[in-house]
Amino acid sequence: MKVTSSDIVISAVKPDQYPNTPIPEFALAGRSNVGKSSFINKMINRKNLARTSSKPGKTQTLNFYIINEALHFVDVPGYGYAKVSKTERDAWGRMIETYFTSRDQLRAALLIVDLRHPPTKDDIAMYEFLKHYDLPRIVIATKADKIPKGKWQKHLKVTRQTLNMEKEDELLLFSGETGEGKEQAWGVLKKYM
Ligand code: GDP
Q1: Cβ < 6 A, ligand 1 pocket
Q2: Boundaries of each EngB-type G domain copy (predicted)?
């Protein structure tokens, strides 16, 4: 897809701040530092619109980005960062639950995982959460540039098996570094728009 415009709309902490428009939305979920911001930046050819985090777990806001006036990417704060208090974790849980269960504009969740390693317990829990609420989900295994091409298929298989993915759910390979998988990802997103 040719991206001609992109901008941040709002960093929201509560639902009344979510953009009040019918624009289709894709939310990115994943572990802190897995590469969510890099995914957004690469998809829209921007170096730094989505903030790539030096302090994982710090952003506790839902960041809405608008692309071509036609869709929103929503960067969701990452999970699995150890140095987060229980209070913060609970607040995170409430925010995620509210967003994912009540947002009509949400077309699909993009679950970002690290292709190099089997999905973590938290990744599995997130996938199960999305399944539980019957939300369309697309799993994106990123950082593909960090392993040799010859091993990609083997790693994708481990990802699919560890998450116990439904057969019909899409699993895409990606690299926020090289842009590998970008056009394929746009192709899949278009089907949901
Ligand atoms: P976020 O916390 O999920 O938004 O993760 P970021 O996008 O901030 O990425 C965390 C770190 O991983 C940064 O240092 C990125 O440069 C790096 N990173 C993200 N995606 C990739 C990728 O596909 N390949 C490589 N080599 N590094 C990546």
Answers
A1: 30, 32-38, 52-53, 56, 78, 142-143, 145-146, 175-177
A2: 22-193
